[in-house]
Amino acid sequence: MVDRAGPVTKHILDNGLVVLLKEVHTAPVVSWWVLYRVGSRNERTGQTGMSHWVEHMMFKGTDRFPAGALDKAIDREGGMWNAQTSFDYTAYYETMPAGRIQLALEAEADRMMNARFDPDEVESERTVIISERQGSENSPTFWLYEETRAAAFRVHPYHHQIIGDMADLQTMTRDELYAHYRTYYVPNNAIAVAVGDFETNEMLARIEALYGGIPAGSPVPPVTRAEPPQQGERRVRVEREGNASYVYAAYRAPEATHPDWFKLTLLDSMLAGASAPGSSLGNRTSRLYKALVETELATGVGGGLYPSVDPYLFSIVVTARDGRTLEEVQGALDAEIERIVMEGVTQPELDKARKQARALFAYGTESISGQAFWLAFSENFSSYRWYENYLEHLEAVTLEDVHAAARQYLRPSQRTVGWFVPISDGEGENHAQP
């Protein structure tokens, strides 16, 4: 099956592997991504952090490429490789000189079937991942985000952190990890993307030769635990050692395929500055910066709207200035939210937000690696056309759209508010209840 639309061609192999190809001949480079439709969203209680751990194990070698062999080979050929695990996916990529891309194609085909999961390596990596979580725990915002998201999601597996709960990291077995790998690392649960200096038919023939013979797996288990409607504002208070106080407001937000997602992304740009997965722009002209930072209530403010498979969150985090109370910061934040809900926004604000969002999108997709990521990323929750039509969707948003989105989504009853209160010697420094 082949679907042609503009510069991207979409192919589906007989075993279910989705292949997206885009020729870009500006430089003799190719970026190759294999994204699996599995992340922390697909984990149950008792096995949290499994997808991230499997990602680590994929670098521990196969019979053909023992541990460390690909590091040396890819470096020798002038390439780079890495991986990432998120809520909705796990992705692996190599960006190589065009004449050396065959190594990347062969490496990912081999890892799709033949990762070892040696028991000794599993135990070694257990120590590494536990240390990784402990390192994150040094950050106050890690605890704040974990507790707030756990309160926001009581049913859906977005409840837990990608890295997993410590209890699960300490007890998970090699066989559980391997079963996760064999369940989800199958062609019919994968999206393969090549962007760069190649000829489409020749690249497709290479991919079919390497991946076409890999057997399809059984249909992967669906995620069926939908989050029920929220019935009122939820509050969380975290008291730990730290040097700053934080307010974190997480509002219910729709999934990326919902028509309101682009309305909210422009609202995010106006409130806290344009942002996208892995990147952001300065926000000194945003409403919340002016209301909180310029008034010296806060030292920083940020926001974010993540393109997710299932409904997720629109988040705002504020770092309180030393000497200011969390009540003051929360009050100013609520006043600014109420103002945008009641009064809406102006056309100049919308025009500027759209310009910033366009600039951020262009910045994030100027490299061939960035383009390949966004094609795979958007195909995972919708279609690569979501990425291709991104700017068109932004242009279609009107003033009334933004105002309607603010009224619908920025309601106190549809948010979870978290406070981080730094303590010293076990004593709370701010005992007011959030």
Structure, briefly:
This protein has 16 helices and 15 strands. By secondary structure, the chain is α+β, with helices and mostly antiparallel strands.
Account of the protein in words:
The protein is α+β, with helices and mostly antiparallel strands and 434 residues long. The protein has two domains: 2-211, Cytochrome Bc1 Complex, Chain A, domain 1 (2-Layer Sandwich); 234-428, 2-Layer Sandwich (Cytochrome Bc1 Complex, Chain A, domain 1). 42% of the residues lie in helices and 21% in strands. It contains 16 helices and 15 strands. The chain has helices at residues 50-57, 69-76, 101-114, 119-136, 140-152, 166-171, 174-184, 200-211, 261-272, 287-293, 326-343, 347-364, 368-381, 384-388, 390-396, 399-409; strands spanning 2-5, 8-12, 18-23, 29-36, 80-85, 90-97, 190-196, 234-241, 246-253, 275-276, 279-280, 298-305, 312-320, 415-424, 427-428. The strands form three sheets. Strands 1-2-3-7-4-6-5 form a seven-stranded mixed β-sheet, sandwiched between helices. A hairpin with a 2-residue loop joins strand 10 and strand 11. Helix 3 (101-114) packs parallel to helix 8 (200-211). The longest helix has 18 residues, at 119-136. It is globular, with a radius of gyration of 23 Å.
